[in-house]
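User: C-alpha cells for this one?
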Amino acid sequence: MQWHLDPGTTNWVWDTPTPVSAWVTTRSGGVSYPPLDSRNISFNVGDLASAVIENRRRSVPRLDQLIMAQQVHKAETVWVGPQDAGRGALDASSAILGADGLATDSEAVVLGMGFADCVPIFFTDVTGSAIGIVHAGWRGTVSGVQLGALESLQQHGWGPEEMLVGIGPAIGPCCYEVDVQVAEKVRLVLGGSDPLSAGRDSHHFYLDLWETNRLMLERAGVPSSQIAILRRCTACHPEEFFSHRRDRGRSGRMGGFICR
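Assistant:
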C-alpha cells in the first residue's frame, strides 16, 4: 500500500490491493475565489454554493451517490447505505447529522468528509467489501473516532485484523503546536507512548496526529503493515492544501472520498 499524487486530477490517491478507490483533493483545479481558491468542497466556509457544487462535481465522479456528514469533532461513526445516497452532496442541510465517521458495505455510495488540517483516515477490508472514512482532529483522535469506525465495521462482520488503513495529509508535528491541556489528554489515552515534542515553552508541545492515530489503531488490532501514512503537512504546503491553522480560520476544505 502507498499514496501517490495523480497528475491528472491533482488528488492524493491511496493505493490498495482491492477494487476500492480513495483519495484526498488538493486546493487546485476548482472555481472558488480567494481565499478559498480554488477547489473548496465545503458549504460552511462562506463560499458560493454554486462554486462548491462545481468543485465537488470535479472531485467526485459519482456525485449523486455522495454522502457527507455534518462533522462535530467527536467520535461517532454512522453506518450508511444506498438509501442515504446524495445526503449532503448538493447542500449542507441534508448531510448525516453529528458524525465524524461514515462506513458502509454498499457499492452504490461514495463516502466523503471535509478537511483542513485534521487527519483523513480511510478504511477497507482486505477484500474491499467494506469501507469507511473518519475525520480526526485532536478531539476526535483522543475520543477514539478511529476506534468507532473499527467497531462499526466489526459489528458488520469485519475485524480490525482484516482492515487496511490509509492515513492522509494533515497538519504535521512540524507545525501543530498544542497546549499542555491537550498534551495531557493525548498522554492519558496513549499511556507510555508519547507523540509529542517540545514547543516554544514548557506549556506547549508539538503533536504528531499521524503517529497518535497509528498507535491507537495498532493497539486496537490493525497490523502495522496494513497502515499506510502520507506524512505530508497541510500547513507547510500552501500551494497544495488548505490549512485552518496556517490561514487563521479563513480557509477552504479539501475533500476525502472513498468508494467501492
